[in-house]
Specification:
Blueprint (H helix, E strand, L loop, with lengths): L1 H22 L10 H11 L3 H4 L18 H13 L8 H8 L4 H12 L26
Helix pairs in contact: 2-6, 4-5, 4-6
This protein binds heme C.
Length: 140
């Protein structure tokens, strides 16, 4: 019994750490490099092939990336990476791409699509601090 309790305490701890990593998607506008984001988006990962040169292309299963907020883009990439049920019927396509991205790469790509003055996230210039719910989760 003791062992089970220790195991439960351990897994719930691991879970809460993961959730923080998932929900605390801050992009600091001073730490991003739009130029590098452009290279990652166009050359390294070829996101442009499906999403257009600067995220302007839409299809039956996704909308134009440049019409979304930076916060939405970051949380959706993290969800494709970590939650296999997230997304639409073509999500398996995006899961492959999202899994290759580091957090810094996501931030640079998003800065390229939105412009580093338009990140609208906690820590970015002129942004309000993130609001937390009573459960300690950040509101998207
Ligand atoms: C082979 C085509 C393809 C490539 C390459 C690709 N994507 Fe996608 N992307 C998709 C599809 C298809 C979806 C919609 C998936 C679904 O059904 O949920 C999508 C969805 C997304 C979404 C969510 C959009 C929304 O409307 O919610 C984001 C953000 C995104 N992609 C970013 C990227 C980034 C960044 C890269 C490069 C690292 C990339 N994609 C590369 C096909 C692609």
């Amino acid at each position: 019994m003791k062992k089970i309790l220790i195991f439960l305490a351990f897994t719930s701890m691991a879970f809460s750490i993961d959730m923080d990593a998932l929900l605390n998607y801050n992009i600091n506008s001073e730490n991003v490099d739009e130029k590098l984001g452009e290279t990652l988006y166009i050359k390294t990962y070829k996101c442009a092939a499906c999403h257009g040169a600067k995220g302007e292309k839409a299809s039956g299963t996704f909308s134009a990336l440049d019409s979304k907020t930076a916060s939405y883009l970051k949380s959706s990439l993290l969800k494709y990476q970590n939650d296999r049920d997230y997304g639409g019927k073509t999500r398996f396509v995006m899961q492959r791409y999202a899994k290759r991205l580091s957090h810094a790469e996501m931030d640079n790509i998003i800065a390229y699509i939105k412009g580093s003055d338009n990140l609208e996230l906690p820590n970015s210039k002129n942004a309000e601090p993130a609001k937390k719910t009573q459960d300690g989760l950040f509101i998207e």
